[in-house]
Amino acid sequence: MKSIILIALIAIAFTARVQERNMAKIQAELAKSTYGSALLHLVELHSMAGGPVQELIDAIEELINDLEEELETLEFDFQVRTNEHNALVVSLEQDIQDAVIDVNNTQDTLDNLLYPRRNQIQSKIDTVIGYQEENRKNYDEAVLVREQEHEAFEAQVAELNDATASVDDALALLASLTNPSLLQIKRFQNTLKNIENKLRSRSRMAPMIKALINLASNQNFSNQDVLKSIVDALNDFRNAVVDQINDLTAQEAQDVIDHEAYLEQLDDEFSEFGRQIDRATVDLTATNEKIDSMVEFRDQRAADQKQYTAELELENNTYAEETDIYTNTKNEFTRELGVSEQALALVQSVDFSNIKV
After folding, report:
1. Cβ atoms within 10 Å, residue 187
2. Quick count: other Cβ atoms within 10 Å of Cβ 40?
3. How far does the signal peptide extend, from start to end residue (predicted)?
4. Do residues 126 and 339 make contact, with C-beta atoms less than 8 angstroms apart?
5. Rounded to whole angstroms, how far apart are CA atoms 330 and 337?
6. Which residues in 201-236 are b (16+ Cβ under 10 Å) and which e?
7. What is the pLDDT of residues 85-134, one digit of tens each?
8. How far is CA 263 from CA 129, 186, 285, in A?
């Protein structure tokens, strides 16, 4: 029986030493932090005031509950923020991707469709303008050639009319000859020479007048048969000249008709070229307006992409900072919670009246 009592006393003494050692260890742990020191002060003051232990236990338990609630609120708020962050990141990344697609598609349309179309239309306009310029050049040349041809016609007709008048003079002179003198014969021969000079460039008439000159030079003008032959030859020559005048006049009239028809054709072509240029210009204006619109859209989407990228970077940086704050705050709450639990264990010990801070 005595031995049992002795063992019980030894166990009680050993338990007391262990409790004392644990209290010292807890007190040392609490003293390492400002928050723990504050709790130790609270315990010391409560011990000095002789307040009920349960009141202190209730206060620390309430503090622990508050810390646990704050930790839960912190976790909940951060999870909500994380969800918002993830949703915003997904949205911004999609916005960036959409902007990149719009920029690339717009640039592709510009490079492969609108810019080549504009160049093609402008090239067509330049080509048709060249046709117009060539058309006016041909028009002016046609007018100039027609004027020159008309002047040549008038000169040729004048020459032929002069030749006809000279033939008429020669016929009148021959009609007055009954017993021609050498002077009259010479005058007649000079008249034929004058006709030859006027028609020298006219190959069609030249052989005929040359034959007349030869005939007049070698014949006896007192012979009426000879005179008749010369008169007949002169009349044939005159008729040939008149026929040529008529032919030239008819050809001139036809040339005028052909010339006017050609000018009308050139004017029609010029008008058609103008209509083609007008249509192409309208098309070019519409194409340029479309290009300007798409360039503006491309630049706006490029600016959107830049803005979304900046917003994404800002969001990531902000979330990283908030994550650091959350982590530090959580660690602090966890540490304070551990300290509070150690303080509660200390208060719940058998004796804490000797606690000194």
Report:
1. 14
2. 21
3. 1-20
4. no
5. 10
6. ebeebeebbeebeeebeeeebeeeeebeebeebbee
7. 999 999 999 999 999 999 999 999 999 999 999 999 999 999 999 999 99
8. 18, 53, 32
> Quick count: other Cβ atoms within 10 Å of Cβ 60?
22
Rounded alpha-carbon distances, angstroms, from residue 156 to 144, 192, 199, 244, 248: 18, 18, 9, 10, 9
Torsion of CA 170, 174, 176, 180, to 10 degrees: 120
Per-residue tokens: 321? 């900072």
Q: Can you state the percent helix, strand and coil of the chain, rounding each to 5?
A: 90, 0, 10
Low-confidence ranges of the chain (pLDDT < 70): 1-56, 173-224, 226-227, 346-347, 349-357
CB count in 10 Å sphere of residue 151: 10
Side chain identity at 229, as an amino acid letter? S
Determine contact, residues 166/195, Cβ cutoff 8 Å: yes
Radius of gyration from C-alpha coordinates of the chain: 65
Closest CA to 110 of 281, 287, 251, 229: 287
For the stretch 262-285, pLDDT in tens is 999 999 999 999 999 999 999 999
Q: Are 131 and 270 in contact (CB under 8 A)?
A: no
Q: Give the model's pLDDT for residue 163.
A: 79
Contact 122, 284 (CB under 8 A): yes
The encoded tokens of residue 73 equal 């609120």
Q: What is the pTM of this model?
A: 0.62
H or E element at residue 341: helix 224-347
